[in-house]
Amino acid sequence: DTGVSQNPRHKITKRGQNVTFRCDPISEHNRLYWYRQTLGQGPEFLTYFQNEAQLEKSRLLSDRFSAERPKGSFSTLEIQRTEQGDSAMYLCASSFFGEDYEQYFGPGTRLTVT
Amino acid sequence: RKEVEQDPGPFNVPEGATVAFNCTYSNSASQSFFWYRQDCRKEPKLLMSVYSSGNEDGRFTAQLNRASQYISLLIRDSKLSDSATYLCVVNSGGGFKTIFGAGTRLFVKA
Q: How many CA atoms lie less than 13 Å away from A22 in the CB half-sphere?
């Protein structure tokens, strides 16, 4: 399968715990995006990488959130000290460089904070 | 005002109907535009890009009006399998600033 993959697909955690999600983009794609989606809303942009450089972060991304993309391949999104409001679907997408290049999404990681 | 606004829906239509979705965006510097489809509890999938000249893909037609900052999607001869949420997407800032609308839910009934 050459699409975007994400792991884990589901995560249930207790408030205050740290969680880490992984995204493996389509191998030729040099741009990688993270989004958060809650019920009834469209995906909200969190952050974006071009190769290994994190070039933009949304104001939605509090200090508890950090993302990395070492070597410009896979990416991780870590949430520290989770809160119930962090419960959402976390989506990763990848694309080629350029505004006309479409983004392809992974299946997402559904986070539930209890 | 939201940066990208879509018809709130839901739309309930019979099979074979023609249905149109509308989307407006606030950033006049926006550069590229897309429609995505999202099935329940699945990831968004690209339906089509939207070009200034308009584009058509089978039963689907997308239009862009830059002057009015308006995008539309027309679905002809609706199928049961078209039931999904349709997301309007606008890119700016060299492509990385991607804003999704909240989506419009479509139900096609037999």
A: 7
pLDDT tens sequence for chain A (114 residues): 579 999 999 999 999 999 999 999 998 899 999 999 999 999 999 999 999 999 888 887 889 999 999 988 999 999 999 999 999 999 999 998 765 678 999 999 999 999
Hey, are the CB atoms on B99 and A91 less than 8 Å from each other? Answer: no
Nearest CA in chain B to A42: B102
Helices (H) and strands (E) in chain B, counts: 0, 11
Name the residue facing A98 among B44, B95, B102 (closest C-beta).
B95
- From the CA of A47, how many Å to the nearest CA of chain B? 9
Question: Distance from CA of residue A3 to its chain's centroid?
Answer: 15
**Nearest Cα to B57, choosing from B48, B46, B70?**
B48
* Mutate which: A105, A111, A112, vs B, most B CBs within 10 A: A105
